[in-house]
Each structure stands twice: as structure tokens, then as C-alpha cells.
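Researcher: I'm preparing a figure for a lab meeting and need a structural model of a single chain. I don't have an experimental structure, so a prediction will have to do for now. The sequence is pasted below. Please return the structure as C-alpha cells so I can convert it later.
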Amino acid sequence: MAMSSKIPLLLIFFASLCFSGLSVDFDVGNTRGWEIPPANDSNFYNEWASKNRFRVGDTIHFKYEKDSVMMVSEMEYKDCISSHPSFFSNNGNTQFKLDRSGLFYFISGVSGHCERGQKMIIKVLSDDADKGDSSGAATTLANVAASTLITMALVHLGLNSF
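Model: Understood. Here is the structure written out cell by cell.
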């Protein structure tokens, strides 16, 4: 296969990478997963969350053993109360889709774990927040570049009459 015939395939590949950034899957706690943090690091999960940029449509994955994850209200989060969660899972590999902007409060459902720091607040940005910052502009620019690359590849392949 000649190099000139590989170019359209490469263009399509790189363009698809640009579009793949529309939603992201996050592993809560990275390699640590969802567990009681060390005694001297009780803010571990909120620090992890603050280093990430969550958007509507992203998914967070909780990986754990002999535990659970609950989504609760702000008050329940502060008081580590787990009697009326709006979401509960204990399957060891929980996926949660962030379906709105705003704050999400998560705690462990195992007695004593929340009090020891196994809790987290996720802030999901609104679409309006993206429009006002440079990363939103970068995403738009990447999408325009990807569209241009796809069009160039299609023209090169002679498939421009679509």
C-alpha cells in the first residue's frame, strides 16, 4: 500500500480522536479505587475530583471490594448519613453517568467508612461554563479541525458527493 493511499485513513483516524473527547470515563481514585483512604489522607477523593474536569455525559467508575457507593444530598454527605440515598450500588464495579450539571455527593454505605474519608463531591460543569472558557473554545476548534480532516479524506477518496 503506497503512502498516499494511507493518508486518508490516517486523517480519518486522527479526526476520530478529536471527536472521542465528547465524553470521558473516569476511574474514581485512579488505581486506588473506592476504599477507605489512609488516616492521614481523609480528603483523598475530593482532591482527586478537584483535579478532574467533569462534564454532562461523562461516566465515573467506582471499583471496590466488600463496600458500596451511594449518592446522597449535601446534608447527608456532611453528616455521613446513608439511610435514604438517591442512588445505591454494591456490585464492586459501579458505573455512574453524570447526567446534569451541578454537584453530586457520594459516600460509602458501609458503617464508619464515610466518617474515615470515603466520600466525595463531584462538580459537573454546565454547557454554559464551557462556552465562557478557553477549553470550550479548544473543543470547538478541535471539532472544526476534525470535520475538515474528514472532509479532506473523503475528497481524496473521491467520496465527496455525500
